[in-house]
Structure formats: C-alpha cells, structure tokens
Amino acid sequence: MSEPVALKLTAKDFKSDQEVRWCPGCGDYAILAAVQGFMPELNIPRENIVFVSGIGCSSRFPYYMNTYGMHSIHGRAPAIATGLSVSRPDLSVWVVTGDGDALSIGGNHLIHALRRNVNLKILLFNNRIYGLTKGQYSPTSEVGKITKSTPAGSADAPFNPLSLALGAEATFVARTIDSDRKHLQSVLRAAAQHSGSAFVEIYQNCNIFNDGAFDQLKEPATRDDHLIRLEHGQPITFGSTGQFCVVHPPGGFGLEVRETASTPADEIVVHDATVTDPAYAFALSRLPGLDLRNTPIGVFRAVDRPSYDSVVQEQVANARAKVTETPQQQLAGLLAGGDTWTIL
Amino acid sequence: MTKQIRQLDRVVIRFAGDSGDGMQLTGDRFTSETAQLGNDISTLPNFPAEIRAPAGTLPGVSSFQVHFADYDILTPGDAPNVLVAMNPAALKANLADLPRGADIIVNTDEFTRRNLAKVGYTTSPLDDDSLTGYVVHPVALTSMTVGALAEHEVSKKDAERAKNMFALGLLSWMYSRPYESTLRFLERKFAARPELVAANVAAFRAGWNFGETTDSFSVRYEVKPAKMQPGTYRNITGNAALSLGLVAAGVRSGLPVFLGAYPITPASDILHELSKHKRFGVVTMQAEDEIAAVGAALGASYGGSLGVTTTSGPGVALKSETISLAVALELPLVIVDVQRAGPSTGMPTKTEQADLNMALYGRHGEAPVAVLAPKSPADCFDAALEAARIALTYRTPVLLLSDNYVANGSEPWLLPDVESLPDLRVEFATAPNGEDGTFLPYLRDPETLARPWAVPGTPGLEHRIGGLEKADKTGDISYDPANHDFMVRTRAARIETIPVPDVEVEDPDGDARVLVLGWGSTYGPIGAACRGLRQRGLSVAQAHLRHLAPMPANLGEVLRAYDRVVIPEMNLGQLAHVIRAKYLVDAIGYNQVRGLPFTAVELETMLEEVLKNV
C-alpha cells in the first residue's frame, strides 16, 4: 500500500460559510475551534467526513463544519449515524450531542450504539443544563439543582455519563474539557484512531444558564488539586505537587485517593486503558463525586473489539463472494425459488 | 373398494387445531400440492397471538383456510366445504362458519371428557344430534398415526406430532393432490433427523392409504386445473412478495437496500426474509426500537442506499417524527406498515385497514408523503417496486399500507420477467449546480421537483441538511415567512404532482349506476361480490385504488359518473371521509372492524340493497 497523499488541509478548510450563532462566551466556540484545528491531522478528504447531530445548542455544530452534515432529531443522532456508518464504512462519521440529547431523550440509542460498537466518534458536550430550551435541569444536573423547572431543587439523581457508557461496554471512553485545547485535541486524536465506538465526554461551560459549572477544574488555583490527568502506563498521581495518588485498596471493589507521601510506590495504580474488564475504567469513573473533586480526564478505556460495521459488512461480503451470476440473473433465480409450476 | 370420483369446480377446506398441532404447516403443504396441480388458490391463515395458548382451549385454536378452483378466484372463500377439526376446541370455534352439508373430519382421539369439558361441551357433539346436517367423518387420527409408526425409531411424542401429516395424507388422497413436493419438503425440513423424515412420510402415506381403504370416505374429488395466463407460477404470501419486491428494487436501482426494523407482528417476516438476501447486498439491522429502525434507514438513504423500514401501526406512530424529518430532508425512504387491528396492541394477529388516516395525516406540521396499498398477496411485489420508484424518483418517504390479510394470505404469482421490471436507476449529484461553482442542495428538478441526491463522499458537494426550515435552493437555515410558505407549498406540490396511473373501472355491462370503490386488501371480496351480482344479471362497477396519495388524476371524473359510490373498508370510513372532502361526492361507507376480511356474501347482500335503492 502506498503512503497516503498529504492533503495539506488547514483549520480554515473546515469552516463553513455559516455564521456561528452560539451565545457569546459559550464553551462550544472553543470546542468548534479545537475540532476544526484537529481535523486536518486526520488527513481525510472533507467529503468523506460527516457530522451528525441531534437537537440542542451543541447540535448546531454540523452547520459550522465544512464537511457533510446532518442536524437531525432530538436524541436520534446515534441511530441515524448508525445507518449511515454501517452502509458506508468508507466514511468517518462523528456524532455531536449534549447531555439532554444523548442521555435523556436519546439514552436508548446511545447505549445501543455503544454496545454494538458502531464505528462512530461520539462527542457529548456536557454542560449539565438545558440551554436551547432556556434553563431546565438536565440528566447530569446535580441533585437539588434549582432551575426554571425545579424551583424547589431537582429531585432527580443524575447520570454519570462515563459510568453509563462503560456499563454499555463501550470500547473507547474518554473525558476532556472545552477550555483545554491541547488536551481536547489529544483525546480527539485517540478517539479518531479507535476502531469502533469512541465516546468522549467534554465538560462544556454554558455561561448563560449554568455558568462556572466546571470552574474548579479550570481555575489555575484549584484545578491541579482536582484534575487527574490519566496517562497510559503512568502511575496515577495528581495535585499541585503530586501529593495525591490513586490506589486499589485490598478487599474493596473500587479505587480510592490517598496521600502519595504515605503510600508505597508499588501500591499506586498504573493506568492501563487496555484492561479488558470494564470494571477498572468504571472504578475510575466513580472517583469524582458531583463536587468534581478527583476528576479524571483523558482516555479511561480503549480496547479492541470488532466494530458492528465491520461484522455486518463482512457478512455481506462473504455472501457476495459466492455469487457468480449477474444481479439480474440472481434476481430471476430468487423469484423462481421454492415450488413453481408452469402453465403452457 | 372402488371409490367414486366426483368433479368439483371449487373447494374450501379449513384445517383447524390447537396452535401446537401444526395446522399452518399442514395448510401450507396442502396449498403447495394444490398449486402444483394448477388450480387457482387463495389462502387465509388465522392464528392466535399467543405462541402456545393453553392446549385444547378456544383461544388456542389455529386455522388455515385454502380455497382452490378450476377458475380464477379472488378470496379464500366465505364458508368452508370441509373442516378438519383436530380437537373439540377446533370444532367448536369453527362450526358456526360451516354451511349445512359440509364435511367435518374430526380427530376422535382428542374428544375425551377432559377436552370436551375445557370448551364447555357436556356431551360429545359426536354422540348427540348437534352435528345433524353435516357429514361427519370420525377418524382416530392420533392413535392411527401412532400405530402406523410402531416400527419407527421415534418417541411417542414425535409419533403423535406426526398426526398432522396423517391428516394431510388423507386430504391429499381425498382431493387427488400430487404429493411429491410434500415428500421433498419433509426431507428438507428434517434433514438433520432422518428418523423424523421417515416417520412423517410414513404418517402421510398412512393417511393416504386410510382414505383409499376405509368405508368412511366413499367419494374422491377432483378439481381440474384453472385456465390461467401461461407462465411460471409460485404460491406466495404478501410478506414474501413484498420482501422480494424490495430485493428487486435494489437490483433494478443498482442501490444497496438497507432495512432497519424492530420485530413486530405481522411485519417481522419481512425482516426474516430480507436478512437471508445478503448476497444481493441487502443489509438488515434489527434496531433497538422502532425509532432507531427508521432513523438508521434514513441515515442509510442519506448515504446512498435505498432505506426501508418495516413495521405495523404502533411502530408507525413511533416513527412519525423521523418520517417528518425525511419529508424535510427530501430523501428517499420506504415505510411499510403491515396493518393490524388497533388501537394500541389491539388484536395483533388480526387484520384491519385503520391506519390510512395515520399514513395520510399522522405527522406534525404539513408533512405530505406518498401512500399506496397492495390489493392482494402477489400484488405486494409490484407495490413494493412502485413504492421504491416513487421514493427514489421524487426523493420522498413513501408509506406502503399492507395488512395482515394480504401479508399472511397467499395466492399464485405469475413470475415476472426480470428485464421487464421498472428501471429504477437514479443519478446522484456529482458536480456543483449553482453559478460560480457552488452547490445548491435544494435546487429542484423542474419536472419532478426533486432535489439533488448528493451523497457523502462526493467531492465539492459538502453541505449540511437538517430539520430546520431551509431556504429555497441554498438549503441554508431560514426563518423568512415567505420562504416557509413557499417551501410548505412546494413540499405539498411535490407529492401532489407525482404522476400515478389512472384508476381503472371494471364495468363489463357498461350500464352500472353504482360504483364500489375500495383500496388495499378488500379487492378480492369486493371483486367476488361484484361478480356474484353480475352473474345474477345486476350491473355494478368496481374501481380499486392503489395510490392513496396522490390520488389518480381521473378519480373525480370516475366518481361523478355514478349515481352512487359505495366504499367498503375495514375501518370506520377513513377513505370515504377523504373522498367526501376531496371530491364532494356523497359516498356511502360500509364498515366492519372484526379483525377479519369481508366475506363476498355480505358485500353482495349489502350491494344488492344499494342497487335496489338507486
């Protein structure tokens, strides 16, 4: 196989002629710029890239990408993208969704796309609020959240999106933050390289209805003590001076945070995203509470499993490989199948 | 003894038994033998929704009716001439449908006190006078089958289960059917267990020989082949014909067929059938729900496949939002609704035509789609091709309204010449269509009003589409009032101007004053009723709609040419409502929602009344 020709695309090539219409200061701008900046790296012709979205602020995303794109129905993007991806394995198909779109109205399609391992790159912009409908609580809002629809505080327990994805046995699960362009792009890179479903949660700030939701992970004064930057093959330590670490206490099911100074080095968990059992990544996803302390970002899990697309296409290819007739002859044979009789 | 042989022109047989007795299979095999002989055929299976309702009870009765004749027939027959009753429940459930003088073959082994009590018989109807007026043939089917298989290496249970083959053998003898296809079928079906092939063949032969030797059956019947158009035929159900039509649409368009489906009665057989045809490039996906099924189909259409989704009424309700998106996106999509009795779960194995309103109007906003309906099992093949033709040519969702009656019923199908099937090839957009080299995804073909189908992977045509209202030509998001008004009217005109064939009127006498208008699966019973009236010297005209949206251009003129228009429907008057509103014609509805097709007799009686009063 010859080396692919370098397309020499730039971020500008991925900007559509449409005026971007998110609220000034929205985290979506940073994500859009990061994605447009990353796309040339794929070295995939623009015509072979498709962005499919549902409904919500984030779902306007496809209009701003100079690729093929579809702004579809609330919650249904993973289903529509599945049909596209399975029937067109030559395409690079990306799904852009939000916490309401993916986890509330579209929860069913999300988990089924993940369990099937459809070759989709799913970017979930999580701002823990409904933006486009002007400020109702979402399925990732914290318990007790006061919003327009919950004046006495939300009574709903929220989803942890990564735990949910891991429960569906997603083969690639990662988290990143809108404001950290470098990290965001590194996660996109890993997602793009993954064959099968890649699920990426992006913490995204809604400065109108839920401003500052992730501030403690962003502010220089606090972020280092809360963010756990996962790196494959590295011991999991964090804190401004590396004072915290993650261990697997004997007898327990999960992972816990300890002080590094009082922990023997060989007890510190070394991150391995390729662990087959989703229990490890699940334990990682349970480290932070809703207060965002001890929040891991990076690739939690990246394991190999045949994609749904490849299995389906292989079945078709195997069936077609045995065919020696023209399609018209084949059809004539099919129609005349079963018991026939002839009247002269 | 020498048996008398009597010629008949037509016979209706109903096989009835417990849902575990294999009556559908028995009926199916008898039908296949009959087809081999060259009779015209029409069949009607009737079974409960429960896979195995409690044995021996009335709700557990499953039946299969086959009508065959030496002339062309239109329905599975109103009343059976012969009932095969495998147990007391089957007798009780079907007796009311039998005319006096009909033959009843009963499996006496099942007429035990316990089984009789289960269905409320205090004394056996075989022993009292309740079957006076019928010709009853008591046959110890089970014990004779077990006896015939005494030397076979099969369990008692397997031996008893072969009793349906004994019954088939007996009926095959009685009606002089060629049985080679059944023997071949048994070899295929039990290929992995040769002892069962031998046992079932032996049971079949025992039944045949019993007929030949017993005094209980003194007459053997013959029904001569029908005069049918020359050609090669096969017997086919509506669901099978519809599946083959979709495969054919893939071949004739050169596009891969993508089926997204969620299991639902009575449509699942289409999913089963299409999943076997991967060698045609057909991809089937059993989705997580009805919404995902249509979503995936639409996604595949966007990528250049012929996207199809198959379901029944409750599924269409769930798909409605996505069908509206397909209206806005102007992409091809075929939605098959195999209608069943509703609302809600209703009677899932029984037929009805009550989804017409939903098909025509059941979406939010002004969201017109093309709607058509097959008139018979074999017609499902052509209707599927026509649905695909409209979807592909006009880039629109098309709703194909089958129903349980045509889906599971069967009739002989004259195999078409593949080369004569419609050419469905389409052209994808390959180059910019705007001045200055831009691509305008909503610039329409002036003739079809279809927009370009520009599939991902085409360089230079990258564009975005979505559910938001689009500006004419550019497809950009638009909230402009005049543009929205224009786009809504254009989407309506797009459907309204699809050319469809004129409706044909059958009025052999040429002086009819009453027109019977139908759509979908009522074609057979209406046709048989009209024939009955004409045979008695009465004039009546029949017209049948395949296209319900848009309607044929000549329909208004046709309707106004008659003093009375009668519309029989298995709903409460949905087509009649449309006809009255659209054409200001004072149509009379004749409506039944019993989960069963109309009988020709009831329609004939009703029409006779109408004729009297014109």
Structure description:
The complex is a heterodimer of chains A (344) and B (614). Chain A has helices at 27-42, 77-87, 99-105, 107-116, 161-167, 181-193, 223-226, 278-285, 308-321, 327-335; strands spanning 49-53, 68-71, 92-98, 120-126, 172-177, 198-203, 227-229, 237-238, 244-247, 256-259, 295-302, 340-343. Chain A has 344 residues and is an alpha/beta fold. The longest helix of chain A has 16 residues, at 27-42. The N and C termini of chain A lie far apart (58 Å). The mean pLDDT of chain A is 96. Chain B has 4 domains: 4-223, Pyruvate-ferredoxin oxidoreductase, PFOR, domain III (Pyruvate-ferredoxin Oxidoreductase, domain 3, 3-Layer(aba) Sandwich), CATH 3.40.920.10; 234-420, 3-Layer(aba) Sandwich (Rossmann fold), CATH 3.40.50.970; 427-498, no CATH class; 505-612, Rossmann fold. In chain B, helix 1 packs parallel to helix 6, helix 9 runs parallel beside helix 14 (379-394) and helix 11 runs parallel beside helix 12. The model of chain B has no long low-confidence stretch (mean pLDDT 96). The interface between A and B is large, with 60 and 73 residues.
Outline the secondary-structure elements.
The complex is a heterodimer of chains A (344) and B (614).
Chain A: H1 27-42, E1 49-53, E2 68-71, H2 77-87, E3 92-98, H3 99-105, H4 107-116, E4 120-126, H5 161-167, E5 172-177, H6 181-193, E6 198-203, H7 223-226, E7 227-229, E8 237-238, E9 244-247, E10 256-259, H8 278-285, E11 295-302, H9 308-321, H10 327-335, E12 340-343
Parallel strand pairs in A: 1-2, 1-3, 3-4, 4-6, 5-6, 7-11
Antiparallel strand pairs in A: 5-11, 8-9, 9-10
Chain B: E1 4-8, E2 10-18, H1 23-37, E3 40-46, E4 61-69, E5 82-85, H2 88-94, E6 103-107, H3 113-118, E7 135-139, H4 141-148, H5 156-161, H6 163-174, H7 180-189, H8 194-213, E8 219-223, E9 231-237, H9 238-253, E10 257-261, H10 268-274, E11 283-286, H11 290-302, E12 306-311, H12 313-329, E13 333-339, H13 356-361, E14 370-372, H14 379-394, E15 397-403, H15 404-408, E16 410-414, E17 464-466, H16 481-496, E18 505-506, E19 514-519, H17 523-535, E20 541-545, E21 547-549, H18 555-560, E22 564-569, H19 574-583, E23 588-591, H20 600-612
Parallel strand pairs in B: 1-8, 2-5, 5-6, 6-7, 10-11, 10-12, 12-13, 13-15, 14-15, 19-20, 19-22, 22-23
Antiparallel strand pairs in B: 2-4, 3-4, 9-16, 14-21, 18-20
Helix pairs in contact in B: 1-6, 1-7, 4-6, 4-8, 6-8, 7-8, 9-10, 9-14, 11-12, 17-20
